[in-house]
Design brief:
- There is one protein chain.
- This protein has one domain.
- About 45% of the residues lie in helices and about 0% in strands.
- The protein has helices spanning about 1-5, 20-25, 30-35.
Length: about 40
């Protein structure tokens, strides 16, 4: 989510958070990897 938010910004992306929360967000697995969909084999 952090990458998506930054990469989609047109001019400027401000991240207001604590370092701990940012590290937790970056450490989580990609959401797409945790979804169970009909196309998963």
């Amino acid at each position: 989510m952090v990458y998506t938010g930054i990469s989609r910004s047109k001019r400027l992306a401000l991240i207001l958070s604590t370092q701990e929360i940012v590290q937790q967000g970056v450490a989580r697995p990609n959401r797409s990897d945790t979804l169970c969909v009909g196309f998963s084999i």
